[in-house]
Design a protein that fits this description.
The structure is a homodimer. The first copy, chain A, has helices at about 5-30, 35-45, 45-50, 55-80, 85-105, 105-115, 125-140, 145-165, 175-185. The first copy, chain A, is mainly alpha-helical. Chain A has two domains: about 1-55, Homeodomain-like (Arc Repressor Mutant, subunit A); about 55-185, Tetracycline Repressor, domain 2 (Orthogonal Bundle). In chain A, helix 4 (about 55-80) packs across helix 6 (about 105-115). Chain A is elongated, with a radius of gyration of 19 Å. The N and C termini of chain A lie far apart (about 60 Å). Chain A binds a DNA duplex through helix 3.
DNA sequence: ATATATATTCTAGCATTGCTATATTTTCAA
DNA sequence: TTGAAAATATAGCAATGCTAGAATATATAT
């Protein structure tokens, strides 16, 4: 009997609707507008139902953050493959990273400032997180010996640029110049 | 009659007590523990008094963030003067930046993630913000032609490193290596 | 010195939030 | 069809940011 399967499917669907609604609201009105009541209304169930899917509000944000890391990884890989040459790929990846952050500000916020509980270097690290790091390492790797240090530094530079751009603390216009500086640093030995 | 002066002094003192209490609580228990009720209790006044000093809770965080930028500026300058040579100064400044973020995590959080409303490149930008940027530029400046781009990129790299370290997403051990990489990039033409 | 006006502070409460205990309904198997 | 179990809803708690209005203290003018 496929009853259990159907129920499982329906639950997964509803869970998806929850995160989708949360993402939509967060992107259009900010994370403060993402309340349990609002989400319950959106999916047309009562509030306690949400707690049968997620332990608490933060867990919803964390789930979305993990989605985001998966999407970021594919976006970076797509950029890497679209461009030939080491330096060209690095620059493409860097620009893709910043574009991603700019296109989904609430998602990026979930990934890097809301869901701080998601560690990287631990045993329970979700594959999506490792994969995003790996996508960056692939772009950095071929050109350098100290891959890990270089990748961490590359990531930090990109994240810093994304964050300071978002908060309007560095000029929006000089993005390309800053990326060129970062990339030129990492491309050479 | 110095009555108005006395009142002004008392008000300023009370305001200082509010931000001091908020900072203390934030550093020891996190920003969630910084509630208006808690602060009111701490300064031994009723809650509405706080609203005669600050428009709302966020304004308290913003005031603390500005304090933080001032302190960061002096810390960076101290590091720059303590070390001779261009490259040496750059590295000292970088390490001082990361140490500052590590020593006052709640303060740093206030500066860069809580008080997002504080813009840099606008007319109403507080001098403390400009000064912190200037302190970085002083360290970057002598070695480069494109000072502004280089300073923005330097800042972004440092902020990214601080943020990813704080959230445990890059290894705590390799800090020096990453800083060396960043500095070597900016020191050379 | 006293009364009045002004400034200051407090009490009490509203609306919203995350979350949960409990009641109710629906679903499935015997 | 009926009874157990799973799923869902109602109602409410405690905490939060914030504010209206009452009450108190303070300074000035007579």
């Amino acid at each position: 009997m496929g009853i259990a399967e159907r129920k499982g499917r329906e639950r997964a669907e509803r869970e998806q609707r929850i995160t989708a609604a949360a993402r939509l609201i967060a992107e259009s009105e900010g994370w403060n507008a993402v309340t349990i009541r609002r989400l319950a209304e959106e999916i047309e169930y009562s509030q306690p139902v949400l707690y049968s899917h997620f332990e608490n509000r933060d867990a919803i944000v964390a789930a979305i953050a993990i989605e985001g890391f998966g999407e970021l990884a594919t976006a970076l890989r797509q950029a890497a493959h679209g461009s030939a040459g080491c330096q060209g790929a690095l620059e493409s990846v860097a620009m893709a990273y910043l574009a991603f952050a700019r296109a989904h500000p609430a998602l990026y916020e979930a990934m890097f400032t809301k869901a701080t509980g998601l560690r990287f270097a631990e045993t329970d690290t979700r594959p999506e997180l490792k994969d995003a790091f790996a996508a960056l390492a692939e772009a950095v790797g071929p050109a350098r010996a100290d891959v890990e240090v270089a990748t961490e530094t590359f990531w930090a530079a990109l994240h810093g640029l994304a964050d300071l751009e978002r908060s309007g603390r560095i000029r929006q216009g000089a993005r390309a110049a800053r990326v060129r500086l970062v990339v030129s640093c990492l491309a050479e030995p």
